[in-house]
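Lab channel / #folding
Pinned by the channel admin:
"Please post every new chain as: sequence first, then the structure tokens as a reply. Keep commentary short and put observations after the output so the thread stays searchable."

First post following the new format, from NK:
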Amino acid sequence: MFGGIGTVTDGATTWMTPLSGAAGTVTVTALSATSIAGTFSFTASPLVGGGANRVVTSGSFDIPITGTPAALPANAGSSMSGTIGGAAWNAATVVTISDTGGVYAFGGSNTDTYVNFVLSSISGTGPIDLNDTTAILSIQSGITGWNSQLGGSGTVTITELSASRIKGTVSATIEDGAASTITIADGAFDVGLP
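Reply from TO:
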């Protein structure tokens, strides 16, 4: 998963960023075989009890790299993002549930919204119309859930498929089974496979 968690500890109190996908940024400004440097900023909430958030601004780092780093697995780093219901959304966690027999089940979430895909009979790249059997998209936000099996339309486009990754885009409007719909635009996923 690209990203991480920002923490501040002062005495016995710790503040941590939520898994919102929007709590802050880390920008790498220089990377070589011997060092990494960059800047960071974030807003962290207290882990226990109430109290004020800690806002970190103008943070910087310049760290030497020593030794030999371990090799990363081929599926290192996953991301999911888009505009859901008109608001920018970034996954703070991405999980691959299944990648067997042409069925790919994966999802991403943050503290507010979950997005899940089940794609069946996939053998290569290209567009797939959302429907109730081969391409299913579900979104859960709060107590409301939308699912392409309940109605709507849209397309998932697979742009890369290998033994270690599935990448693509999504644009859809799906229903909750009543009168409510939700739209995902500019959706993108890049998911490592086990």
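NK: The first strand starts at residue 7 and ends at 10.
TO: also worth noting, The chain is about 0% helix and 65% strand.
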